[in-house]
Amino acid sequence: MKAAPFAYVRPGSLDDVLGELAGGDGKVLAGGQSLVPVLAMRLGRPGTLVDITAVPELGELGVRDGGLRVGAAVRQRAVEHDPAARAVPLIGMAMPFVGHRELRSRGTVCGSLAHADPAAELPAVACCLDARIELIGPAGRRTIPAAEFVTGAMSTAAGPEDLLLSVTFPAAAAGEGHGFAEIARRHGDFALAGVVTRVRVDRDGAVTGARLTGFGISDRAVTREVTPLLREAEDEHGLRPATAALAEEVVDTGGDTHGSTGYRRRLFGVLAARELSRALRRARDRRETA
């Protein structure tokens, strides 16, 4: 199929972008790696595509106020290779699994968040790190946590006249370690199940916080605080019973030709135990280095 007819504009200022979105018939275009297939299948029929790549402030990338701020037009490939992104190690772990290199050269970080695919890596990373998402629209600017931004499969808190301005990922502190893993049919495919972890320890190496986010397992990324779980067992095999029980609670996606619900629960439980253990080791290695 081919896209239904639409108008195309490329404003040069933020005010002009918001003007084009007024009325709710416009759709933001940045990288287009999610939007163009939707248009081609006629799952979306916007009257106007509003290309935001000419707005200078939406292409900003850098560390400020203790976090990595990624503007709406910043390519995934740029984040993958920018030294500033080293402030958020989990970005470096996850980015090579986001599609393929060619897709990351066009796709944007904020575009992936706005698309809100339940099996996508970047929304899960944002939720695990409690990233902050900045929106602007008729009601002005507002900032909301990533976990509140995604409301369901392909659904977010952004209104039809809103623009996602940026996402800010908090920089890793001393004593903070991370883990990332996913299982997919082929590298670059969407995950059958995936896990993102963040663990914090004090100077003595004792666990002070542990967080786990699963993706590809429900209608959105699912985040749980798992500090007591990690305090009771630290090694992968000791964690397995607890993560298997957690899988029964959080994995509710239906089975398909690629795997049953039970298979995804098994994947999630194994990956969760392994990545929590790895994140703990990394956190202890980083007690004095961040």
UniProtKB/TrEMBL annotation:
PROSITE patterns: FAD_PCMH. The keyword Glycosyltransferase does not apply. InterPro entries: CO_DH_flav_C, CO_DH_flav_C_dom_sf, Diverse_Substr_Oxidored, FAD-bd_PCMH, FAD-bd_PCMH-like_sf, FAD-bd_PCMH_sub1, FAD-bd_PCMH_sub2, Mopterin_DH_FAD-bd. SMART domains: CO_deh_flav_C. It holds the Pfam family CO_deh_flav_C. The keyword Flavoprotein applies. Keywords: FAD, Flavoprotein, Oxidoreductase. Residues 1-174 form the FAD-binding PCMH-type domain. PANTHER family: XANTHINE DEHYDROGENASE SUBUNIT C-RELATED. This is Xanthine dehydrogenase family protein subunit M.
